[in-house]
Amino acid sequence: VTAEKGGFAHFMLKEIHEQPRAYRDTMLGRIDESGRRIILPDLHLTDEKIRSINNVHIVACGTAFHAGLVGGAVIERLVRIPVMCDVASEYRYRSPLITPDTLVIVVSQSGETADTLAALREAQANGAHVLAITNVVGSSIARDADDVISTLAGPEIAVASTKAYTSQLIAFYLFSLYLAQVRGTQSAEEIAHVIAAMHALPEQVESILANVDAIKAYAEHIAKHEDLFFIGRGLDYAVALEGSLKLKEISYIHSEAYAAGELKHGTLALIEEDVPVIALATQESVLEKTVSNIKEVKARGADVMALTHEEHVTDLLKSVDQAFAIPKTLPILTPALSVVPLQLLAYYASLARGNDVDKPRNLAKSVTVE
Ligand code: AGP
C-alpha cells in the first residue's frame, strides 16, 4: 500500500506532490514551440464559432466549481465575454438562459458527477456548445460533451481533490488564452508573457513543497479550534472558498470563506478573541482594501494569518500575527500557487486531529447520484 502511495503516508499528500508534474503534463503539446501561442488541436470549436460566443456559463460541483470561479474571472479579464458560474445542482433546475451563442463549460474530475452530467444535457438541449474539462478520458461527461480539454493529472484517489483542481486551473488558463488569441483581445506579446509565467509554475510549486514546516506548525495550531474564517478579494476569494472546503472536508473544522468586503455585513459579529482568520492577500490591485479588512478583524481580537508575496510580508506583519509567502507570479496565475499551502494546511490539520485523511466521513469520491 505504501508503494501505491509512492512512499507518502497518504494518497492526498502524494497527489499534492504530483502537482508540478500534473501542471507540466496538462500544458504539454498545447503551447507551440515558440512559446507564444496556444494550440488546442483536438478542439471542434471553430474560430468562427469562438467569435460568435456572446456569453459563457461555467457549471460544476464542489472543488471543480471553485476552479470554475477562477476560470470565469480569467476569461472575463482576458477575453471580455460575460461569464456566469453556477453549481450544477442549481443550474439544472432553474431554466438557465441558454442560447446557441452560449458556450457552456462543465468541469469535473471524475466526469461522472450526476448533477454536472445533467447540466451538460440541459445545455445541449438548449442548443449550446458544451466544452468539458475533465480528468477521466472515457467518462460519461467526456463522451457526451461536444469538446473536451483533458486535464492530465492522472488518477486521483484521495476524496479531497488537489491535483485535479490545479490541473483544471491550467486548462482554464490555456483555454482563456486560446479564446483571447482567436478573438484578438490580447496582444501576441501579452499572450507570450502569460505563457512564460505559466512555464515557471511547476518549479514554484516545488519550492512551496520543499518548505512545509511552518504551514505544518500552523495546521497543528488551528487543529485545536472548532471555527475559523478565510477572507480574500477577487481571485483570492475564489481560492479562499477552495481552502475552506478542503479544510472542512478532511479536518471537520467548521470554516467559512468570505469576500473580505462582505464581513461588515454580518459575519464580523462572529469575530472574537483568538478566532483564527486566514487572509489571502496576493492580489495587488485590492491589497490595500484587504489590509483594511484584516485590521477590522484584528481589532476584534482575531488571530490572523496572511498568505501573500514575499515583498508584502514585512508590511503585513504590522497588522497580522503571522504571514506565509508564496512565490511571485502574474495575478491571474496566483491561484495555482496560493492554493498549495491551503491544501497542506487541510492535510496537516486532518492529520493532527487523527482523521482518516484520504476517506473523510460521509463523503464519496464521485457523486454519481443526486
Ligand atoms: C473535492 O475535494 C470534493 N471531494 C468534491 O467537492 C468534488 O470536487 C465534487 O464532488 C466534484 O467532483 P467531480 O470533479 O468529480 O465532478
TrEMBL record:
Catalytic residues, chain numbering: K365
Enzyme class: transferase
Known EC number: 2.6.1.16
Repressor keyword on record: no
Locations listed in the record: Cytoplasm
Domain SIS: residue ranges: 46-185, 218-360
GO molecular function annotation: transaminase activity
Catalytic activity: D-fructose 6-phosphate + L-glutamine = D-glucosamine 6-phosphate + L-glutamate
Keyword Cytoplasm: yes
Origin: domain of life: Bacteria
Its biological purpose: Catalyzes the first step in hexosamine metabolism, converting fructose-6P into glucosamine-6P using glutamine as a nitrogen source.
Assembly description: Homodimer.
Record's protein name: Glutamine--fructose-6-phosphate aminotransferase [isomerizing]
Species this chain originates from: Paenibacillus aceti
